[in-house]
Write a structure and sequence with these properties.
This protein has 20 helices and 15 strands. It has about 500 residues and is of the alpha/beta class.
Length: about 500
């Protein structure tokens, strides 16, 4: 990349990268540090940092340094305008040592600034392929011209600067979210609040309050999607272990070859790729609670080891003969019939009886229909916040549809249905057609044989692709047509890996 490395520039690069990545709280100071460091790095007389506004697809001069910094501050241009716009649009760096005769040079910007530009260098700032902004530096000192080496130094710095800007944005968003959650916590709603209106759930919570102080194992039973994990969390938060860890393990999500190591840890050299000692989930949960979801999927070989942990509070890590002792309360959950599995010898009876000391059965959503309106409103509110849309509620037909539907996927299915409707609806009120319960439209592919999550993902992908195609793959126009924020659409496109077909 470089011939002989300029040690002074290298040290300056390290120094400035450390500086900008240590200041995320003051956005304006961060931007100032970025552009000041850029001009120092390449010896420029002036410079500006232009940020991309994904909502409007415009470019805004967020900060500038040099004689005409005030004229540039907060100026907004089209993404295709000028040298900066070309760099933003093409995603390529550029050196222009004769800007007045370059077709990409914008006379309107030059006239507004009234600053003689003899040479310009601009570099895009991107994170994971998404445009953050552009760093532009103007006029190398002592009348010289920018070189390819200058460009490479600035490109390296721009990578770090883009990450710093995105981290600052993320911190700002997270701070706002934490403030929102803290407000909920002050109201007694907790971090993962249970939303309900039925007497049935009230009784279950009263039972949890009674059994939470005990250290006895709890077995939570219920269909898939009823929210068993939330009840497990409630048990932990109400127990004397509330200040200690709450460790979640999905026994079905981990392959059998890794499950033992994940649960109990391993020592260095225990197997291939075991390069160092590792703590397992039980050791991480010491003093607190471990939640074993889908416990019925635990292999028989590991059921014996789990039984010993419950009985003796000790185990051996994979590859070790030394005994590790832990103080952990076990909460397990399943949607399967463990009695039948015990009869078929698919689940150890002694483990079943140890887990089933305090059983807690969560009823399906169809048996507590009073919860449907409040849950649906809750999920709609979350979707509204996520998409920055105004969604005021459900039509009478939509509510009747939800109340009459059997909800085989329970609360999880309801959440997905409301989220889908929030994307689909063209109004502020969700209709029965938007919910699409128990059926499909002509534009939706056959989802037979897929899990609910897979079906929702497939629907979103299909729907968004059709919308993008209908708007010529223009994200701004598509977002307007769907009445959602362009940033939300852009994130969905990335999450669902939607790409324009090449003809």
């Amino acid at each position: 990349m470089f011939g002989t490395i300029d040690e002074a520039k290298f040290e300056l690069l390290i120094e400035t990268c450390a500086l900008i990545n240590s200041n995320y709280t003051d956005a304006r100071t961060l931007l100032s540090q970025i552009i000041e460091s850029s001009t120092r790095l390449v010896g420029a007389e002036a410079g500006s940092l232009v940020l991309h506004d994904a909502k409007t697809n415009k470019l805004r001069f967020a900060i500038a340094i040099g004689p005409k910094k005030d004229e540039l501050f907060n100026a907004v241009i089209d993404r295709e305008e000028g040298i900066v716009g070309w760099v933003a649009q093409q995603g390529q760096s550029l050196i222009v040592n004769d800007p007045l005769h370059d077709p990409r040079f914008s006379p309107s910007i030059a006239n507004a600034v009234n600053f003689p530009a003899k040479s310009i260098m601009a570099v895009p700032m991107t994170v994971k392929g998404a445009l953050v902004g552009v760093i532009e530096v103007v006029n190398k000192s002592k009348g010289r011209y920018f070189t390819d080496e200058d460009l490479r130094w600035l490109e390296i710095f721009a990578l770090q600067a883009a990450i710093a800007v995105e981290n600052a944005r993320f911190l700002q968003k997270t701070s706002a979210e934490l403030a929102y959650l803290s407000e909920k916590a002050l109201k007694g709603e907790g971090w993962h609040n249970l939303v309900f209106a039925s007497r049935t759930i009230t009784e279950k919570l009263e039972l949890i309050d009674r059994i939470a102080p005990s250290d006895a194992s709890v077995l939570i039973l219920g269909e898939s999607g009823v929210g068993k994990e939330l009840f497990a969390e409630r048990l932990h938060l109400k127990s004397r272990r509330a200040e200690k860890p709450f460790i979640r393990v999905n026994c079905a999500a981990l392959p059998e070859s890794l499950l033992e190591s994940e649960l109990f840890g391993h020592v260095k050299g225990a197997f291939t790729d075991a390069y160092q000692d590792r703590k397992g989930r039980f050791e991480l949960a010491d003093g607190g609670t471990i939640f074993l979801d889908e416990i019925a999927e635990l292999p028989l070989r590991l059921q014996a080891k789990l039984l010993r942990v419950i009985q003796q509070k000790s185990f051996e890590k994979v590859g070790s003969s030394e005994t590790t002792s832990v103080d952990v309360r076990v909460i397990a959950a399943t949607n399967r019939d463990l009695d039948a599995m015990v009869e078929k010898q698919e689940f150890r009876s002694d483990l079943y009886y140890r887990l089933n000391v305090l059983p807690l059965t969560i009823p399906p959503l169809r048996e507590r229909k009073e919860d449907i309106p409040v849950l649906a409103s809750h999920f709609l509110s979350l979707a509204s916040r996520e998409m920055n849309r105004t969604l005021t509620g459900f039509s009478d037909g939509a509510m009747e549809s939800m109340l009459s539907y059997a909800w085989p996927g329970n609360v999880r299915e309801l959440e997905n249905a409301v989220e889908r409707a929030a994307v689909m609806t063209l109004d502020t009120v969700v209709s029965a057609a938007d919910l699409m319960l128990g059926g499909k439209t002509e534009d939706v592919e056959d989802y037979k044989g897929r899990s609910l999550k897979e079906a929702i993902t497939a629907f979103k992908t299909h729907f968004l692709r059709k919308s993008l195609e209908g708007n010529g793959w223009n994200q701004t126009e598509t977002a307007k047509a769907l009445d959602i924020q362009r940033t939300y659409l852009s994130r969905l496109i990335k999450e669902l890996s939607i790409a324009q077909s090449k003809e």
